[in-house]
Amino acid sequence: MCKVKEFSWTKFHDAPIVGILRGVDETTLERIIPIYVQAGLSTIEITLNTPNALAFIEKLSAAYPDLNVGAGTVCDLEGLDKALEAGAQFIVTPIVDQEVIAKCKSLEIPVFSGALTPTEIYTAWKAGATAVKIFPCSQFGANYVKDIKAPLNEIKVLPTGGVDSKNIQSFFKAGAYGVGMGGSLFPKALLVEGQEDALLSHFTALKDSF
Q1: Using CA atoms, how far apart are residues 194 and 203, in angstroms rounded to an integer?
Q2: Is 38 helix (H, G, I), strand (E, B) or coil?
Q3: Which residues belong to the active site?
């Protein structure tokens, strides 16, 4: 098993964005991660349904000591064990799986459990989720986060889906603890060779919004 680095909460709080990479290839990964780190962003999630995801997690964990590297789309204990074996520092799920949450809690591994309804969100939190990933939030927006936080103000929420550079601050004003960003953080047009400067500007603008 890879030696798992401790998740850096200091770096996360400085830029509370979980960058979600799904379906990326190795060449693209090697090109964009140095730019991501240069911009001051520090937390990256590789979804397990990405080809070679475990190898990517292992590689990034070893190559970037200041980067929080986690596994996403973890739906069961088998996926969790494989992710931890690869060196994942945190776990993200699209669903409430209480076994996954419990094991992460016992190992003191941060786990951001996916949930949508108030009951699911409360269930994930009570089970021990470090924060609850409100997913998919793209159909609901920041007002949904505000509505959830009104009665469930003690729960740390991490809306994912529908967050972009134009509305990101509205989610934090609504009470988000952090946000998950996929395509809006990694637009395909900026991931191609030759767009490195534009990608750095894009990342830096998001980092500077905090």
Answers
A1: 16
A2: helix
A3: 45, 133
CA–CA distance, 168 with 161 (Å, rounded to integer): 11
Place of tokens 């994912």: 160
Which tokens belong to 13? 């709080």
Q: Would the pTM of this model clear 0.90, i.e. be above it? A: yes
Residues 6+ apart with CB under 8 A from 108: none
CB 152 within 8 A of CB 160: no
Query: What pLDDT digit, counting tens, does each position of 39-48 carry?
Result: 999 999 999 9
DSSP 110-143: -EEEEE-SHHHHHHHHHHT-SEEEE-S-TTT-HH
Interior angle at CA 149, CA 154 and CA 174, nearest 5: 120
d(Cα 55, Cα 38) in Å, to the nearest integer? 23
